[in-house]
Amino acid sequence: MNYRVMCAIALFAGLSACCAEEDIGRPVDLSDLEEIRVDYTYMGWQFFEEQFTITPAKEPDAFLLRGRYETAQGDVVDVEAPVSRQSVAAVIHEAGSPKWSRERGIQALAQDVDQRALRTFEPVVRVPASLCTDEELQYLARRHLRRTALVELIDDHYGHGISWTDDYPYALVQIRRRGKPAFVVSSRSQKALMLPWDPGVPKDSPPEAHQNWSLPFSRSIRALLPPGSRSYRRLAELPEMERRLNWDAMHKAERECDAIRSHSKS
Questions:
Q1: How far is residue 254's CA from residue 248's CA, in Å, rounded to a whole number?
Q2: Which candidate among 29, 58, 101, 143 keeps its CA 20 to 30 Å from the CA of 95?
Q3: Among the ranges given (45-54, 96-105, 158-167, 244-253), the one the predictor scored with the smallest mean pLDDT
Q4: How would you write the chain as a 3-class SS string?
Q5: Rounded Cα distance, 40 and 28, in Å
């Protein structure tokens, strides 16, 4: 089923405090902006493709989002909606800001993690069954989380490149301004906020020094997108990462349990 979404008000104004222009610190000149384009493709158990453009509207300092996406329910949505100047200015500001290093990005992620969400483990059915009880595994997992610095846990989680199969996202962001070179970044990251971003189109092994680990950039892009789109959900914040940190801790607990039980039998 196809739907045409026409909005009379700015749908995405104020989605994120980081995207308010007063937080930028100085006015951003948008008079030369021609287009912001966000392409998103996902391949795994399914295939999805989205494309969004943000262009100046007829009215001064007004911008219009156009695009198409498929909802989780399978409905195809054609969207045409105003976007706030603040949200557009935030993207331009972050695109022109110095890149964040991996270390800075990881440290910022660690500050944003909900510590209460960690150490909350979901029951797991294991085949073959673990040598330890669930209570013992949770104890070992919590001990691992206590003993390991959060920045180290997150750094290990991000790793280097693809970490699991059947999950291949790809995002491409292009910004075109009159008389200036196009700004182009891309990401194939499976992790939270699709960090890091690589300059230009994807490369197999881009130098880490060229990558951008900026949380504000990812958040500014997300604030432009329809909340029902898959790219919006892919650029989500931290709950999925927090769950995976817990899973990683449980896997380490299982290995530690096996080592303890095997040693006790020898």
A1: 10
A2: 58
A3: 158-167
A4: CEEEEECCCCCCCCCCHHHCHHHHCCCCCCCCEEEEEEEEEEEECCEEEEEEEEEECCCCCCEEEEEEEECCCCCEEEEEEEECHHHHHHHHHHHCCCCCCHHHHHHHHHHHCCCCCCCCCCCCCCCCCCCCCHHHHHHHHHHHHHHCCHHHHHHHHHCCCCCCCCEEEEEEEEEEECCCCCEEEEECCCCHHHCCEEECCCCCCCCHHHCECCHHHHHHHHHHCCCCCHHHHHCCCCHHHHHHHHHHHHHHHHHHHHHHHHHHHC
A5: 26
* Residue that is written with structure tokens 């089923």 in the block: 1
**Tokens 């490369």, residue located:** 203
Match 């104004």 to its residue by tokens. Answer: 13
- The answer to whether 183 touches 195, Cβ cutoff 8 Å, is no
- State how far the Cα of 28 lies from the Cα of 18, in Å rounded to an integer: 15
Tens of pLDDT, residue by residue over 59-102, are: 999 999 999 999 888 899 999 999 999 999 999 999 999 999 99
- The bridge status of strand 76-83 relative to strand 2-6 is parallel
pTM for the full model?
A: 0.82
Is residue 196 reached through a cis peptide bond, with omega within 30 degrees of 0 on the bond before it? yes
Reading the block at residue 120, the tokens are: 């909350």
Q: Measure the N-to-C terminal CA separation of the chain; round to a whole number of Å.
A: 64
